[in-house]
Amino acid sequence: MAFTSSPWHGSQNAAFWRTLFILHCISTLVFTTISTPPEDPVKCVSGNTNCTVTNSYGVFPDRSTCRAANVTYPTSEAELVSVVAAATQAGQKMRVTTRYSHSITKLVCTDGTDGLFISTKFLNDTVRVDADAMTLTVESGVTLRQLIAKAAKVGLALPYAPYWWGLTVGGMMGTGAHGSSLWGNGSAVHDYVTEIRMVSPGSANDGFAKVRVLSEITTPNEFNAAKVSLGVLGVISQVTFKLQPMFKRSLRYVMRNDSDFGDQAITFGKKHEFSDFIWLPSQGKVVYRMDDRVAVNTSGNGLFDFLPFRSQLSAALAIIRSSEETQERFRDGNGKCAGATLISSTLFATAFGLTNNGIIFTGYPVIGSQNRMMSSGSCLDSLQDGLITACPWDSRIKSEFFHQTTFSVPLTQVKSFINDIKSLVKINSKSLCGLELYYGILMRYVTSSPAFLGKETEALDFDLTYYRAKNPLTPRLYEDFIEEIEQIALFKYNALPHWGKNRNLAFDGVIRKYKNAPAFLKVKEAYDPTGLFSSEWTDQILGIKGNATIVKDGCALEGLCICSKDAHCAPAKGYLCRPGKVYKEARVCTRLDDDISVIQPLRY
Question: Are 242 and 251 in contact (CB under 8 A)?
């Protein structure tokens, strides 16, 4: 039996979401500074032995458990050298973990159970500040928040960075993390780095560990390999940034219909230095971020404390998750759309967390110093409160649980890609409301990078966040639409997946999209010839051995594979493998009642 929503049911949903979200916003504002911070991603049975590691969301894309025999917490480069030397001499596999472990993919995992986790949690000091040269050298475990604050103390600013400040310097370098801009050297953090100190395995003559000092001038090939390293070259010890004099930003959000969005997306980034978009395709709306650099003496003390990154009341998070599970169970598309409309309108009305003076929002433009406007994440900056409040995705409570599909589409292809998504919305206007429950499609500008595994061209990065079931064999409402968008981007437009996000299917054959991949692999072979810092996952995504996809019954439901037969979906629940609706080359899990084409068998 197919469940549908009546108009009465839809109005009840709207009232429910309105009441719940108002309470949720109140709790977000009230509990901003008393949230429980995340726990350490590494847990051990006894001391620092017999350990597991996970990401900040508690589950990897394939739901596997990553284990190691030991974890170590070096506090200096000298200790780090000793750790790497001992493991190299013993032939022990190693991987680096960070303070919050925000990469969704399995980049922290080592193979088997005998490996070593090297945590940079206590490699968190500032090494050197040169205000005259405008450089700042920090250890790799320093968080983005700490980096921003330290630079600001000497009147300097990092020009571009991710919006979430819980990332570490080493983590950003490992995955190519970025903000949004087509200006300057682009929005990638690694393109504002001038020197990297890295500890790699060494020969017996080296004492089994080698400290490498890399820069664009002295070691250009090695430097461009290390700028986005995936952790396979060794452990980054220290990073030197080239900063800029402090400046201010003037920001306003404007919501428009998306009728001309394809054209606007191509040109808007040239008009505003820090521009981005939040696209609400089911509502036919786009939120434009009009964000520009202004002189440091411009009046204004604005602050951007993004509402979804603030502390949240755990009870409210549990209710929201339960309501989403109910909508999935009863296939309540109307309920999702009602909630999405309320969430997007409320976020827009509250300026997404912007305030003109750090306390209240009084109107646009909001003008503030770069260190107060570029990144946020106040749910990390808090005391223990027994999990009464937490970051919204904290896996210790019933909270947000989602997939993230993130890829960069070449700017020359963006208009066509946007039109393809619009075509899907025309087929079913409710199909993408689930994305809008997670604030919509975030779109950020990136540029080509000299980093061997960095971006290849000017592009728009599309960030899709959406519901994930606790049971891996449970299909999602309208999952075929999101699967088709994913495949359109990756295969029709040759989009590059974000190294630290995405589901497995995004990485099959991905290394062939990078023209400098051979140069990267050459450096990898020189730095770590026995692959002590490599893992099964890194070998798969680098095209060295095996495939990132996992083919088994139900594998397409969580993006472990692209379906090629019905068993890869959920045939017992009416989900069969069928061609895409717009991109016919796609293969997606479509529900029997949703698509008339399923009465015709698919020819494999």
Answer: no
Which residues make Cβ contacts (< 8 Å) with residue 85, sequence separation at least 6? Answer: 202, 207, 208, 209
Find residue 324's DSSP bridge partners: none
Q: Are 514 and 452 in contact (CB under 8 A)?
A: yes
- β-strands 354-355, 303-304 pairing: antiparallel
What is the Cα–Cα distance from 119 to 284, expressed in whole angstroms?
45
Biggest distance spanned by C-alpha atoms of the chain: 77
> Are the beta carbons of 486 and 405 closer than 8 angstroms?
yes
The secondary structure element, H or E, covering residue 364 is none
Average pLDDT, the chain: 93
3-state secondary structure 225-252: HHCCCCCCCCEEEEEEEECEECCEEEEE
Contact 472, 518 (CB under 8 A): no
pLDDT of 116 strictly over 90: yes
pLDDT at 36: 79
Does residue 294 contact residue 248 with C-beta atoms inside 8 Å?
yes
Whether residue 256 is predicted with pLDDT greater than 70 in this model: the reply is: yes
Decide if pLDDT at 307 tops 60: yes
- Which residue's entry shows tokens 């983590």? 171
Report the alpha-carbon distance of residue 61 to residue 331 in Å, rounded. 24
Please, are residues 380 and 166 in contact by the beta-carbon 8 Å criterion?
yes
Task: Judge residue 104's burial from the number of C-beta atoms within 10 Å of its C-beta, 0-12 exposed, 13-18 middle, 19 or more buried.
Answer: buried
Q: 36 in helix, strand or coil?
A: strand
Whether the predicted pLDDT of 465 surpasses 60: yes
Tokens 């519901």, residue located: 467
Nearest CA among 349, 369, 373 for reference residue 361: 349
| pLDDT score at 23 | 53
Token digits for 109?
Answer: 């995992």
- Rounded to whole angstroms, the Cα distance separating 210 from 237 reads 12
The average pLDDT across 370-398 equals: 92
CB 73 within 8 A of CB 498: no
Q: Cβ(365)–Cβ(356) under 8 Å? A: no
| pLDDT-based confidence at residue 19 (cuts at 50, 70, 90) | low
Measure CA of the first residue to CA of the last residue in the chain; give whole Å. 29
What CA–CA distance (Å, rounded) separates 452 from 221?
A: 9
300 touches 368 (CB < 8 A): yes
Enumerate the β-bridge partners of residue 467: 402
Distances (CA, A) of 603 to 134, 154, 539, 565: 62, 65, 33, 9
Cβ atoms of 305 and 322 within 8 Å: the answer is: no
Judge contact between 84 and 210, C-beta under 8 A.
no
Q: Is the pLDDT of residue 27 over 70?
A: no
The DSSP element (H or E) to which 89 belongs, if any, is helix 77-90
Eight-state DSSP code of residue 168: B
